[in-house]
Structure formats: C-alpha cells, structure tokens
From TrEMBL, chains A, B:
May play a role in DNA repair. It seems to be involved in an RecBC-independent recombinational process of DNA repair. It may act with RecF and RecO. This is Recombination protein RecR. Coiled coil: none annotated. Keywords: DNA damage, DNA recombination, DNA repair, Metal-binding, Zinc, Zinc-finger. CDD domains: TOPRIM_recR. PROSITE patterns: TOPRIM. The gene is recR. Residues 81-176 form the Toprim domain. Belongs to the RecR family.
Length: 199, 199
C-alpha cells in the first residue's frame, strides 16, 4: 500500500495512457491532487467531453465535433479539387501546421500491413474511391508515412485511382525514409509537398 | 484551427500538467478520443475523486483519504519511536518502496530556500516539533534531498531538535548502488570515503 486509495486509482488510470509509466503517472497524480479544484474538474470534464463529442467526419474521416468537419464544409474556402490522403488524424494536424496545403483530406485510419493482417477493407479506402466519383477531384496527394507500410499503401492506392482518370501524386522524398510523418518539421513537410511527383 | 474544438480544449488542459508538452498532449488527446467511453469516464472520475478525497494527514502531512493516514493510525504496526522527515509525499513513496523503514514519517512540504523566500514557517516544522513533545519519539531520521536546500533544512532541523533530547540522524551520503565510480562527482566520492565502514 504505497498510496492513499484515490491516488492509487488515479495512478492506475493514468498508466493506461500511452507513454505514461509508473514514475510519470505518480508525478502527474501528485500534481493533480494539488491542483485547484476548478482546474481538476476542468481537466476531467475536457476528457469526458472530448471522448463524447468527438466523432469521425463522414466525408474525410478526421476527428470532428461537427459533421461534416470544418475543412469539408462547403464554405471552408478549401480547394475541393485536391485530396491529401493520410494515415491518421495526427497527420492532418501535421500537414495543416505547414500551411502549405489548401485542399481537403482523407484519413485512412491506418496503412496496409499484410504482416498484421490489415487489408484495404480495414481502411477507409472504399470511402476514398467514392469521393472521387463526383468528378470534382482532379488530384489525390498520397501522404502516407514514408515507411514500408505507407509506401505499400501509396502504391496500392495509386493503382486503384489512376484508372479513374484522377492525377495521383506522392509526397516527395524529402521525407527521411523510415521516419514518422507526425514528427517531421514543417519545412521538410512543406518541401515534400512542393516536390510531389506523378506516379 | 488545428483540432476539433473538444480536442483542442483537452490538449490545452493536458498541457497544464508538468512535463506534458504540445506533442505529448496531442498524442494523449488522440488516444483519449479513441478510448472506450467507460475508460474515459473512469479516468475523469479518478481525477475528480483524487482531487476531492485526498487531504493531508493531520499527523504526518502525507497525502491520505483517511485521517490519520494508514501509517499514522495506532493499529498500523509501525515503530512509533522513529520519525523519518522528508520533503515531499513522493519521498514517502520512495522510502516505502525500500521496505527498509518501519517507523513513521513527517512530510515538510518543501525545503528551506532563502533564495526563493521559503522559511521554516512555510514548512511543517512547528508540527514536527509538536510531535516530539509526547516523549514517544526517540529518533528523527532526516531524509531531505542531498542538495543545497535539503542539507540546509537538515542542519536547521538538527539544531532545533537536538536540545529536545531526541536522537537526530541523517541518511548516509555515498556511492549510489549500481552506479559507476568513475562518473561520481568529487563531493559524493569524498563523502563516501569519509563514511567508509569496516567489512
């Protein structure tokens, strides 16, 4: 019995979060216990609210509280002729941070991985193809991660989309191979977008 | 506008926690959004509960949900003749993990720091002295941090307590077990030499 019971429970819950080990969980718990009661309540509320009010946009499948999301809504001022395809919602955040892309997004929610049994049906691939049916989209930028799974996913999508008469491009390999898109700096990401090539 | 509003709010709240930067806050928020609704609610509840049900033990000033805390309660089986004085509640956790100490604790909630204007009245010093009045306590082990503030606090407490006829000891300074002699600083090595023992 190292902690008072409410602290032990909080430490347990915090340790379920990714990258939070016992030491960090304890440090956070001891901090939370000393927070103002308002701040603790705000933190707790924001967790419940984020979990309950966040859904996937029915168009691009990014996280959103409004459907369609702010980027997909007709009045958003985005270029509706270009769709950037990414693996995860965090990748949309990373791309938006560059301010270099003005089009729409499509979040696959993963990448093809035969090793882990992730096939196209586990990703939002059908939904992407459906978006190309309107004829509004002239280009699809494949911005999956520059690793084996991401490259394979890009190749697969390119083969699928090209026959539809839509231009398919891949982010340039200014991206370090083996890296993680999320952790790239804005300049590198922007350069990669600039140098994209027909595949 | 990088995130959906509820996610942005959660990221903001998470970034108020110590050691949580924007990247980590985003990673945690995206994880929370994907958690089962029950797990999210449990996490939120444990935060509010920990904040509301945790108080300071009126005897040792460690965090507790019962007063006096489990260690201070008469039936705890602890040696009531020895008090280990530490700076923070997390230090009690660290000491308890050793299973080497069977006595009671006293949490100062800080260390003397003239530089930052922390004097004895800001710490639980009076409360420690009051505990020594019963005559039950035979030894006070000073386990404040081995840095300038911790040493000064130990010296201050020793001068205050010795006249009361209570034995005052300080945790030994020396080589950390599992460490590398080569990388120890001179002061630690000199102390280790000073405190050498017959084997």
């Amino acid at each position: 019995m190292e902690f008072a019971r409410p602290i032990a429970r909080l430490v347990d819950e915090l340790m379920r979060l990714p990258g939070i080990g016992p030491k960090t969980a304890q440090r956070l718990a001891f901090h939370i216990v000393r927070m103002g009661p308002d701040q603790a309540r705000r933190l707790a509320e924001s967790i419940v609210e984020a979990r309950e009010r966040t859904r996937l946009c029915s168009v691009c499948f990014n996280f959103t509280d409004a459907d369609p999301c702010r980027l997909c809504q007709p009045g958003s001022g985005r270029d509706r002729s270009v769709i950037c395809v990414v693996e995860e919602p965090k990748d949309v955040t990373a791309m938006e941070r560059t301010r270099a892309f003005k089009g729409l997004y499509h979040v696959l929610h993963g990448a093809l991985s035969p090793m882990e049994g992730v096939g196209p049906e586990a990703l939002k691939v059908q939904e992407l193809i459906a978006r190309l049916g309107s004829g509004e989209v002239r280009e699809v930028v494949l911005a999956t991660d520059p690793n084996v799974e991401g490259e394979a996913t890009a190749m697969y999508l390119a083969r699928l989309i090209k026959p539809l008469g839509v231009r398919v491009t891949r982010m340039a390999h200014g991206m370090p191979v083996g890296g993680d898109l999320e952790y790239l700096d804005e300049v590198t990401l922007a350069r990669a977008l600039e140098g994209r090539r027909e595949i």
